[in-house]
Amino acid sequence: MTNPSDEQTGIIRTERGLTIAGTRITIYDIMDYVTAQYPSKFIRGLFDLTEAQINSALTYIEENCALVEAEYQQVLKEAEELRLYYEEKNRDLIAKIAAMPPKLGTEAAWEKLRAAKAKREVKA
After folding, report:
1. CA distances for 71 relative to 9, 46, 56, 74, 105, angstroms
2. What's the confidence (pLDDT) of residue 1?
3. Chain-centre distance for alpha carbon 116
4. Could you tell me which InterPro entries the record lists for this protein (predicted)?
5. Which of 16, 30, 62, 94 is buried most, with the most CB atoms less than 10 Å from its CB?
6. Rounded to an integer, what distance in angstroms lies between the CA atom of residue 102 and that of residue 108?
7. What's the pLDDT band for 8 if we cut at 50, 70, 90?
């Protein structure tokens, strides 16, 4: 385990994009929560960051707002394109799996799940 004072706190560009140094956490991961207006303390805890790391990330986002926002929009666009691609590619397989009967011995659990879903839909 590294001592928090030894950790790097800058923002670096890797093959994954803008990343908090010493982590695999991208600025785009942080942006999801910044745009949803989560407090920095929550984001820090969620990603297990030091105070210096979260401050570095938030400062970088603020100082390079246009660049970060443009890259963030590109990341969101690519993620949506991938989601649509794999949704289409796996459509037949997902339908086939959904049509399969439950495994032997799990019928009661499936019935309980169906009842819970029906109850939730009635409340909504």
Report:
1. 21, 22, 18, 5, 49
2. 39
3. 27
4. DUF433, Homeodomain-like_sf, WH-like_DNA-bd_sf
5. 30
6. 10
7. low
* 14: three-class secondary structure by DSSP: strand
Q: Write down the domain spans for the chain.
A: 11-122
Does position 19 have pLDDT exceeding 80, yes or no?
A: yes
Residue type, 20: I
Q: Are 34 and 61 in contact (CB under 8 A)?
A: yes
Nearest residue to 54 via CA among 34, 74, 69, 36? 34
Tokens for 9, please give them: 């706190």
Instruction: Write out the two tokens for 10.
Output: 């800058």
| Measured distance CA(50)–CA(113) in Å, rounded | 41
Query: Residue 66, CB half-sphere, CA atoms under 13 Å: how many?
Result: 0
Q: Would you report the helix, strand and coil content of the chain in percent, each value rounded to 5?
A: 70, 5, 25
The predicted model scores a pTM of 0.67
Non-local (6+) Cβ contacts of 102 within 8 A are 109, 110
